[in-house]
Recover the amino acids of this structure.
């Protein structure tokens, strides 16, 4: 569901009856038309974008990181992504899907025997974000009382030259299996005398690190490698809005085309137009348009507004700091008192980044690894403040207009009900520019 919502209108249309039911007795052609004109109000995607961007409104910082490791931060994944943007993508996945992971990889090479050989060959560790939909399986074993990963299995795509066309490349899907002492990759191939393709061993090697360098990141942790999307309820509401909006579009289409009612005009053809008139000798004859009263349309419009307001509130809830005082016992039970849900996600990303730094240091034979710090001073005291800040962020990112922001602030009772946007916009034009604008 979340994957479809993040895919936008196109993905929701492709999902068809999974999220847009076909009603009983609805003709297939009618359903296809209704689906083809349905558009998604992207509340879930907007909310994930706004919330994920908050911690990265200031640059990521670090302390105690060796210079050799710090030199990797400008291209942490060997794909041109710096540390700041990489951790933003990790946070984005944690907020949307509820789970992702960081794998600290190291290129495979032969003939490398020393650190100098590694530098000469340009070999260095790099980070890979493993998304929820790529992860296949994680297995564990307990060593010295600690639960460690014994096997990690995930799907990845690799790009290789097309042997049959020098100007083309092939995107190949493969399964990677990593264990503390070895790694393997499997690819799907057509095996002789087999009806269907089979997954066969493609490549293998030794894992010299001795551990599986994978770190989980949780959105809403429910246990070891168990998590839940923190905005799951928002996703359900967004699907409900998708369905209700489709119904609203349908009823608007019907209501905009009035029905012509004709009575007691016999069976002869009649012509209706601006240059024609109808007459009848029958005193019971009648001609009129039957139009929709509009009550259902208004009810649908208000229902959509209520859904949109609920979605904003759920998104803003992640910014609200836990209220009230806590006892010592409560503080010990919950080691993150007086924090909002988004701040706890940021702390999880920070912890994962620190662990990834530790794996990086192990690969590079560094005695220390340092720590990462992500901006997290964005919690608010109550729901009203959170929703207002959330709307302001959406406005600044171009997701909603100035007029919509004004109307939402007015609806919350923070602006006089007698004011109008037209009058307020005129006042803004007459006001002197702010110091930021003059600068």
């Amino acid at each position: 569901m979340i994957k479809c919502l993040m895919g936008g209108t196109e993905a929701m249309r492709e999902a068809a009856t999974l999220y847009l039911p076909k009603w009983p007795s609805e003709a297939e052609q009618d359903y296809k038309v209704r689906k083809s004109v349905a558009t998604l109000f992207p509340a879930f995607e907007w909310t994930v974008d706004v919330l994920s961007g908050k911690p990265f409104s200031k640059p990521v910082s670090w302390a105690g990181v060796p210079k050799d490791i710090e030199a990797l931060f400008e291209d942490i994944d060997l794909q041109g992504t710096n540390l700041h943007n990489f951790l933003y993508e990790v946070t984005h996945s944690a907020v949307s899907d509820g789970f992702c992971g960081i794998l600290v990889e190291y290129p495979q090479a032969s003939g490398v025997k020393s650190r100098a050989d590694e530098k000469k060959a340009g070999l260095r560790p790099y980070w890979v974000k493993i998304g929820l939909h790529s992860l296949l399986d994680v297995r564990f074993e307990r060593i010295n009382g600690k639960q460690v990963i014994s096997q990690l299995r995930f799907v990845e795509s690799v790009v290789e030259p097309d042997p049959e066309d020098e100007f083309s490349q092939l995107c190949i899907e493969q399964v990677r299996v990593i264990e503390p002492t070895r790694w393997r990759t499997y690819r799907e191939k057509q095996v002789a005398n087999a009806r269907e393709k089979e997954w066969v061993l493609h490549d293998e090697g030794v894992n010299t690190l001795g551990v599986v360098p994978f770190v989980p990141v949780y959105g809403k942790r429910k246990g070891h490698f168990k998590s839940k999307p923190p905005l799951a309820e928002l996703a359900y509401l967004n699907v409900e809005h998708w369905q209700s909006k489709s119904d609203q579009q349908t009823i608007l289409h019907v209501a905009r085309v009035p029905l012509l009612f004709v009575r007691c005009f016999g069976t002869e053809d009649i012509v209706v137009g601006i240059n024609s008139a109808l007459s009848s000798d029958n005193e019971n004859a009648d001609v009129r348009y039957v139009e929709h009263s509009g009550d259902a349309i208004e009810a649908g419009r208000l229902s959509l507004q209520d859904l949109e307001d609920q979605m904003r509130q759920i998104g803003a809830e992640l910014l609200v700091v836990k209220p009230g005082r806590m006892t010592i016992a409560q503080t010990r039970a919950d080691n993150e008192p007086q924090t909002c849900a988004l701040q706890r996600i940021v702390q999880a990303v920070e912890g994962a980044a620190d662990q990834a730094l530790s794996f990086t240091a192990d690969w590079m034979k560094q005695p220390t690894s340092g720590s990462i710090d992500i901006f997290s001073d964005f919690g608010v005291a109550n729901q009203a403040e959170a929703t207002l800040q959330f709307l302001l962020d959406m406005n600044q990112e171009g997701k909603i207009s100035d007029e919509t922001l004004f109307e939402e602030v007015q609806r919350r009772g923070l602006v006089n009900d007698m004011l109008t946007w037209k009058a307020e916009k005129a006042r803004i034009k007459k006001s002197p520019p702010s110091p930021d604008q003059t600068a």
About this structure: The chain is about 40% helix and 20% strand. The longest strand covers residues 146-162. Residues 41-231+325-373 form one domain. Confidence is low (pLDDT under 50) at residues 324-336.
